[in-house]
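User: two proteins, same treatment. go.

Assistant:
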Amino acid sequence: MTKPSEIELSRRQLLAATGASVAAATYPSAVAAQASTQTPSTARVSFTVNNTVRKLEVDTRTTLLDALRENLRLPGTKKGCDHGQCGACTVIVDGKRINSCLSLAVMHEGGKITTVEGLGNPKRLHPMQAAFVKHDGFQCGFCTPGQICSAVAVLDEIKAGIPSHVAADLNAAPQISNAELRERMSGNICRCGAYSNIVDAITEVAGRKA
């Protein structure tokens, strides 16, 4: 049997929670002002970006994407959905591709990061960049940096024997095929629909490596 004191306590908790919600809805500026007085936590982080050691002091909530774009002024990595769904922010960290919008900068202390700027430049293009140009693997170009970084990492994954979801035999060495490349690149969205050209570009570079 529930005691009256326990019921009363629950009522008080409910009233307190309700009052806080009403205050936040009625006086949002006051609540925001109170929140803004809290000092953000910062941390120092050091990592190698495009073969150069970079040291930063950032808010601990800063994503790797924002650190690259805002702190290091490397705008090649794009902020698309900012929710890890489009792949525009893909970079290569310690040899593996990641969505930089889903990763905090402070998580990569001592890491090695490669962005599209680190792959090549207009005077000396990376083979994947050159293949994208040759095969018209881009139209508006917004997703292209992430597509290229992902494509470079995909070939390394295949070379390392990492299977994909379309692999018929998980113990067999993965082979370059249209289905294989489309599956591995499925996390990189192209609104312009240049997928077939992207696959052609990757296939050509894979042929050169072979």
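Protein 2:
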Amino acid sequence: MRFTSTRDKTVDISFLQAVMDCMPADGGLYVPEGNADLRRWILYTDETTPFSSIAGTLTSAFINTEFSPIICETIATKAFPFEPTLKQLDDNLFTLELFSGPTGSHRDFGVSYLAACLETILTLNGKRATFLDLTSGPHGAILSRELRGKERIKSVLLFPKGKVRGLDESDFVWNGGNVWPVEIDGDLEYCRRLIQEIFSDRELVKKLNLTVSTTANIGRLLPQAFFYTYAFSRLKEKVSGDIYYAMAPGNYSNLVAGLYSWRLSLPLRGFIVPTSGALGADIKGYPVITDSLVPLNQRPQVNPSDPSNLERLENFFTDYSAMIKSFIYPAKVDAAATEAAAKELYKKYELFADFETAQTYGAVKANKNLGDGSGDAVVLIQRDHPAYNADFVQSSLGERIEVPQKVQKALTPFDLKRPLAKTKEDLVKILEQVQ
């Protein structure tokens, strides 16, 4: 499978190139070109098929001209010593928990896969690379863990002032590790501007071998497509009708990855998603992307540190416009409906729901004509452990949720005891030292 850009369809590059040079020169995002028919293999999977095996086969489907199936399987095995958890709540409703990884965040899957894949690429090509990212949440703990033992990847990780957390000193570059944490004298938005400024300098990016571990990088996004085939392998003997997947908007990476699964011939009926300021519904209830009103060539460059996958979604709207109208089911869910949904999940199923999961269940209830008891099923995607949103759980349910140790560790504040960085020049000096 080859890859092109959301803004320039003349771009034609390999998966290796798309992962290494993660941002196209035109300011858009890389997307896969073409389809693959894996229906026969997908139908062969069952409850005994490991997640890593599914990931290895799908990796081979995405990049079959570059790596052998054995290498693809090796990447997946290294990346996934953990797997999602599918639970049945009633005859028609299931949950897919993506917080079974080391930090209780769905990001565990994508970052672990990208690190394993990139390390393989770099080893085969005798190269090195540096992630340049920012975080104020668990991403630092995830990167630190997944880069342990990697010989060819380093990370320069920005934190807004006062937001450093989830770190272990043994992972720092100056202690022999692979992560160089940097506390920035500014807020999250200022950190984003610094990263955008650096990635706008194409020569600098090439010189320093920079990439990102966000879903702007196609190597971080593609593994999210594995979730849907995994869920199907567990559902196919339990569900006689169609399967719908329901998910929070987020940055739309899960929705786009689900559509990539469909392009690999995964049997499914559609996706249910709450509306947002970016993805809404027209008078007939069909999905509408607000940004579509602005031509691609008139938009600013996508910020690699804060990507919205709406451009990738627009790519589907363009190529499959008729199908999309009957494939994505948006629903407006306000705060009251979200809280009511959280209470219903707890009363009916004893399920603690964070805001995202509750809002998504609200969208399922608004689309009550889907999965209506005729053998259809809805899979509710739970991205992060609800303890990450403990305040919402307590305010909506009046219950205090127990915070697992792995979540506590990922959010524990850390004092770097190092000078704050302020400018692009400060960051460039650090990036040069990491090489």
